[in-house]
Protein 1
Amino acid sequence: METVLYNQKGEEVGKIDLPEEVFGLPLNKDLLHQVAISQMANKRQVIAHAKARSEVRGGGKKPWRQKGTGRARHGSIRSPIWKGGGVTFGPTKEKSYKKKINVKMARKAMLVALSSKRRDGQLAVIDGLNLEVAKTKEIAAIRKNLNKVFSRGSLLMILPANDSKATLSARNLPNFDTIEARNLNALEILSHKYLVLLKDSIDVLTKLGK
């Protein structure tokens, strides 16, 4: 399938063929949902943690003797029924939200998401990226040029290999992210409205799809 090839100025410079096995897959909402949910769960950071009675500071001494005081028996002031004591069945940082997803399913979902972006006109291919220095204004100028192709919205630039200039330039730019083609996944694609694909990234994605 053929699509327009742009340069970093947002100008049409020709046409390019996209492989059908990467950019021509039918939509599979069930697969996309399952993979995206799994990848979101695997990125989740477990922050909530309540201390149990064994983790709360203090309470090492029995507050009063077992018998003869007329009061209820207690072994520690850090019991869950005491103010300042441990929490019963509270959230713990040991909880895992990890979900297993097959490699083939994850790759297929990535290709389905790419195909969907292409069909919706939310994917553009540029012939290359030439940055003189690693500065935000350099990549910001390219993003402004791409407004000729896309309207405003979050944008993900897919690089064929590690490009420190592009990565450093884009990290302070809002709604603009970069990723290496080998690290691309369905969640990253679905988390951005538009994709900008460098021409050399197509070969990397084709190898991943096999």
Protein 2
Amino acid sequence: MAYGSKFRSQGVLYFPGFPNGVKWLLISNAAIFIVWFFTQIARMDLPWEFLELRPVAVVKMLFIWQPVTYMFMHAGFGHIIWNMLALWMFGADIETAWGTRRFLQFYFFCGVGAGLCVILLNYVLPWGNPGVATVGASGAIFGILMAYAMMFPNRTILFSFLIPIQVKWFVLIIGTVTFMMSFQQSNGVSSFAHLGGLLFGYIFIRSVNKRKGVRIRVSGPSLTDRYHQWRLRRNRKKFQVYMKKHNDRGPWVN
């Protein structure tokens, strides 16, 4: 994927590498998918449905492992390829910046948090369906996208490998689209998990940054800093206008 930022030249093809956390997540997801695929081909009757996230099963039958195991289940080649591609493209840089331990904490925090949102929203919203299963790492991936946008907002990526766009606008667009899709029934995509991943990714970074002695680097000023900078610029302009008016009166006479 092509990246551009103040640290790298625009349009230079950049490969983030394979740090340990990302590497083993890729391997584990791929291995489980391969086993699942060939058991489906062989028509082996294995209880894969117990690993999917089904809200009614978690609430009524206490299948409390499902908010974790669903992240390693995928519905097809396209599903796992795009999830793992996004995990590598965006997750590798984050793990390099944070370290493997914190990255994995973040990954599972977002994934499990997204699963809890799926359970809650399917019960609370009128168009929710607690009986429908959710699979895939998309919740955790969307958390990674949120973290990436907060850390490298002005970095340029090639959307669909064709359109250059800054990460902050890319995440804003997909977040808006996901929010709109969450109002559709039976669209085949778990928008609840995507929104939950974005939310928990934001919560993780902000909560960690508030702890004493711990800080995750986030590029760019916060909203509060932006507001104070705007007030400072406005007051500076007012002062300049004031001085110009008084200077036009000529020198003071003593």
